[in-house]
Amino acid sequence: MASHSQDHYFVPDSSVYPFACSIALFCIAMGGASYLNGISFGSGLMTVGFIGMGALLFRWFGSVIKESPEYNMDVDKSFRMGMSWFIFSEVMFFAAFFGALYYLRNLAIPWLAETELLWPGFEASWPSAGPIGAELLTGGLPDSTEIMEGTKYALIDPLHLPLLNTAILLVSSVTLTISHHAIRANNRTQAIIWLALTVLLGFIFLFYQAEEYIEAYQILGLTMGTGVYGSTFFLLTGFHGFHVTLGAFILLVVLLRMMKGHFSAEKHFAFEAGAWYWHFVDVVWVGLFIFVYIL
Prior knowledge:
Elements lengths: L16 H20 L5 H26 L5 H43 L19 E3 L6 H6 L2 E3 L6 H24 L3 H33 L6 H33 L9 H26 L1
Parallel strand pairs: 1-2
Helix pairs in contact: 1-2, 3-7, 3-8, 5-6, 5-8, 6-7, 7-8
């Protein structure tokens, strides 16, 4: 049985959720690998895994929410430490990708140009020449035939959708901070309004990023196969988009809980954890905008 005393550290009941989630994760991994290798049941197994994971997380989070009134400040402190270490691990995750970007631009490509290991005449330029024979257009757009053949591509204009998305995320950090100050002042109505606006801005960002990817593939000819620039571009922006999606859903759950009367001016760590994560995602995007789109 769980220990519900406020004088002792909260010990939850035994749970089957971690074991069940490991099964769902196995189905996702096995289904994904099977799908990529052309095995017929792969997509179905992966779908079952995702559905199972979603249902389990819904139940699991619900159990944690029901337990939360029993938490004392020792549990609150451990949650803060855990979230801090989690965000630190995310910082290292993106630092590895930014490090790879630096290595490619400043070390690998110049070395390959000097040794001509790829093909004769390969030049040390960024964006790189991409697949052999591909040409970066700076004064126009490739036509449909050139896109299909992968011979020409153009870059995304950083002052168009990327700049708009930068403004959206920066504004969302402001609205989230206002919401945080409102909940600390015990003004629940204002906190809900500003948090709802933050969530809306997050999903607007994702909409425009999807528009950017469609433009890149269908109009610019910039794909995952467009050399090392294309692969690093979609890797960095894609993982960031995944984190924005996760952060938006975290804040959406916090919003729904706030609308149901959860949290107080003194105890609202779930809100704070989501806010920390969202501000981290915003800072990463500023780095992406500068080092991927601008430089």
